[in-house]
Amino acid sequence: MAYNPVFDENSGNSSEGKYYMEQSPQKAKKCWNFLSRFLVLLVFIVGLVGGILIGIYAYHGSVSNSLCQDQSCQHTDGQSKTTTIPTTNEEQCPNRNPKDDTPYESTLFAPLTIKEMKKVSEILWQRRYITTIDRAPQSLEENFILYMYLHPPKKEDAIKYLYNNGTKPGRYARVHIQRGAEQVPDIMEYKVGPLESISGVTVAPLTSSGEIHFNSRPFDSVEVNALNDILRTDMKALETLMRDSFDGASYPEDQYIFYDNGPPGMKGTERETRFIIGFGTLEEENVLYLLPLSGTVHSPGTNVSEWYPHSYYYLNQGPYRTVSDLVSAYNNNIIRKVRLPAGYRNTLRKKSYPKRDIYLPLREYADQPGARSYMPQGPRFSISGTRIKWMDWSFHISGGQLKGPALFDIRFKGNRIAYELAVNDISLVYGMDSSGHNSIVYMDATYGIMGGDTPTTILRDVDCPSYAAVLNTSYWDSAEQKAVDMESICIFEADEQEALWRHYTPSFAGGIRNRHLIVRVPVVIGNYDYTFDFHFYLDGKIYSKGIATGYILSSFWDENNPHAGKDKTRDAFGYRVSDFHTGPIHDHMFGFKVDMDVIDSSNSVEVIHWKAGDILDALRTQSNITQVPPYFIYNQTRYLEYETLQREVGYRLNYDNQKFFVVVNENKRNSWGVKRGYHIAPLATGAQTLPEAHPAMKALSFSKYHISVTKRKEEESFLSSIYDINRLDDPKGYFDLKLDNESIVNEDIVNWVTVGFLHIPTSEDVPMTTRVESGFILKPFNFFDTTASFDMPQYTEDQGKSEREPAFAACIEPKP
């Protein structure tokens, strides 16, 4: 039958479809069934592919939360549980750079910059009577730059500039020169500047020739290379002994020589460098896997040809005058021997490398991001050069290669609080039964707190949150004779998520969150990592602390040590902490300089004695009363006794006789007539336990006192000398010399604060010691009329009237 299409004039459409359906219903039904099946199959395929894609997406979402940041997805947490990440359409939080364009060197106390160090080095290289080389040193018989850092202005000049429109002091560098080329080698220190000058820079000596003996110098890479050369022949002679004893190890392929076993002898005019052999599977293992083979190198002066090794010990047996004597005793089986098990060396990297054990199951929810803080409307602090401002606080951040971080000109609400708050030194004293490194004493400023052998860089999201502002500092690398820049200081506001103060009643509730500013400086000194914190609080407190972590310095564990008892798990010096090592006892004592300026520089120190006794004892501290008033229900009370220190003095804390140390301004009082002051409050701290007769106690004398007070002097800028640990018989800068009975009433005074902790290493310190800390608080003490945080928005609920902190719109944390 012919097909003739009909046009429907009424509808304006072709009637072809209608005609087809009317004329061929069976054919149309077959076509619709086929189309339906095709659509079902298509939906199934799309669903299958979509499901696969969603599964892949969800799997990767469990690894990285960032994939789900802007949409909803699900992922498993490794524990067969499902977590939903909600959708968000929020925008990124507003942010700004808290640092302006002010150059570091334009601010008064800024650490030396690379540009300034380069200028200083070029000036000194041109003066061949000071330096003899302008390259990396190759010999001890050369004059080269050892250290370089800011030489701060005199306090008097700085105060005039900061507060009285005085002339801005120039910037100067303090430079240490190792002078091996001189007829009588020594160390000299110079003051170089002003660095702003184009042609008028002067170089002025700060010490005299011969004042610092050459053999009292710190270790450097030139000396270490010379020592390695001296010992190369002896190490070859010991090859069979070391292979037999130490799991087939040989030098230098598998082992290293560990020096720096301070001090280098007992006299500053001599130099005896002890060394010990250790495994070298990781750079850091020089402090983990030391072996029972040691000796000493006679190493005075610059003539390396006169140096020689002596006094060898093997498993604490010796001394053997030469390596030949030791090898002969070993080969003739007249000494005890040790044989490490085969394959032992191959286990060390895994034992010591601080990495997550992939064979252990993750803790529940450990694959999800942890809690974190960020700034919903950008930083609330600002940085101009190295001057920092936050919530009515202002101060300058500084620091030097040797002594560590320092804060200057600290102000709160326009009031002077302190002129200088600075780390000065860290002392460590070890006890261990080891021929190679017994009786070790370290003073870390000798090695450089903010610029030693290991440059320090901030680990973001470990040391500091990603939103922290970071400042760079520079230090002088003596091995390369160049300045090195590093990210070393971070500044951020932190939320402790707790109350600074709170109170609740049924009719009233109030409080404020404990937010504060943190200045943090992590450093690396050999095996230990230290972090120094300065916390600034809304109520006027400052919390300063030192934190230690890193690798312990271990000692070889000898199962058959004749000095040990039957208990093979510990000895007189510590516990066994691994297969062949013990953790020797030691301490960490942090020495701070605290130059308080309560309103101005005329200050005194009041010691408030916290006492308990009879009622009359209490009342007689104030009057001549003779009878106990009848309203006391029993004849015992607590009371205070006040003392103004008259002369320079050092104190050790005694918890049976507790004291408050308050720096006061006798001429400035609050509205209640009380002298305005700041309380120096050491927190939990260890104490120096060495007796006065110990050979190192003069050099370490600062560590005897938790709090000392001296009259401020420019020539007494630090609490210790970096050379004294290497001249124990004649220390020049030991702290007791500062306590020379001068008046400290209404004077510019300095409080020296030493806090720390005693460390008995345990198995939990291997491979890594988790943080241990100690510190002190500077707290307003009648400084204000009332609590100093009531100019901040806070939480208040009072009979229907309420106040809250400023609201913020939810937003996405900015990426670092």
UniProtKB/TrEMBL annotation:
List, for all copies, the residue spans of the domain called Copper amine oxidase N2-terminal: 116-197
Q: Biological process (GO) annotations? A: amine metabolic process
Q: How is it modified after translation?
A: Topaquinone (TPQ) is generated by copper-dependent autoxidation of a specific tyrosyl residue.
Q: Where is this region: Disordered?
A: 75-104
Q: Which residues form the Copper amine oxidase catalytic domain?
A: 373-788
Q: Key word Transmembrane helix present in the record?
A: yes
Keyword terms of this UniProt record: Copper, Membrane, Metal-binding, Oxidoreductase, TPQ, Transmembrane, Transmembrane helix
Residue intervals passing through the bilayer: 38-59
- Pfam families from the xrefs? Cu_amine_oxid, Cu_amine_oxidN2
Q: Where is the composition biased (Polar residues)?
A: 75-95
**Entry GO terms, CC:** plasma membrane
The cofactors it requires, by name, are: Cu cation
What the entry lists under InterPro entries is as follows: Cu_Am_Ox_Cu-bd (IPR049947), Cu_amine_oxidase (IPR000269), Cu_amine_oxidase_C (IPR015798), Cu_amine_oxidase_C_sf (IPR036460), Cu_amine_oxidase_N-reg (IPR016182), Cu_amine_oxidase_N2 (IPR015800)
Entry EC no(s): 1.4.3.-
* Cofactor: binding comment: Contains 1 topaquinone per subunit.
Which SUPFAM superfamilies does this entry report, sorted A to Z? Amine oxidase catalytic domain, Amine oxidase N-terminal region
PTM-bearing positions, type 2',4',5'-topaquinone:
Y528
Catalytic residues, chain numbering: D444, Y528
Tell me which domain of life the UniProt entry assigns to the organism this sequence originates from. Answer: Eukaryota
One Gene Ontology term of the molecular function aspect:
quinone binding
The similarity annotation says: Belongs to the copper/topaquinone oxidase family.
The name under which this protein is listed is Amine oxidase
Species of origin reads: Potamilus streckersoni
